[in-house]
Write a structure and sequence with these properties.
globular, 4 strands, Rossmann fold, four-stranded parallel sheet
């Protein structure tokens, strides 16, 4: 499983879920670039950038189908990853979607 946090959140968002999920799954929790402890890179942040980073992580460290668990903006990243890289996805669990109608 790969867990992705939402906008304004951090990997600690999942702290109460790790032990129960780890009973039956290998769990990876990623901190999206630009959030929490990750460096604030001089780049244009986007769902596509985060999707590519998730894919490279998966390709490097996992290499087999995973369940993507996401919240808020992480949902957009995982849906984009599933669309672009179907070999990555075994399933998706979406906890909430961001309100994209607020985009300008």
């Amino acid at each position: 499983m790969i867990l992705l946090h939402g906008f304004g959140a951090v990997i600690e968002h999942w702290r109460h879920n790790i032990s129960i999920l780890a009973e039956q799954h290998t769990v990876y929790i990623l901190d999206l670039l630009g959030f929490s402890g990750s460096r604030k890179a001089a780049t244009d942040y986007s769902v596509y950038l985060w999707t590519e980073l998730v894919y490279y992580f998966w390709q490097t460290f996992i290499g087999e189908h995973v369940i993507l668990v996401e919240n808020s903006i992480g949902s957009l990243v995982c849906l984009t990853a599933a669309d672009n890289y179907p070999d990555l996805v075994r399933g998706i669990l979406i906890l909430s979607l961001p309100d994209t109608s607020l985009r300008q």
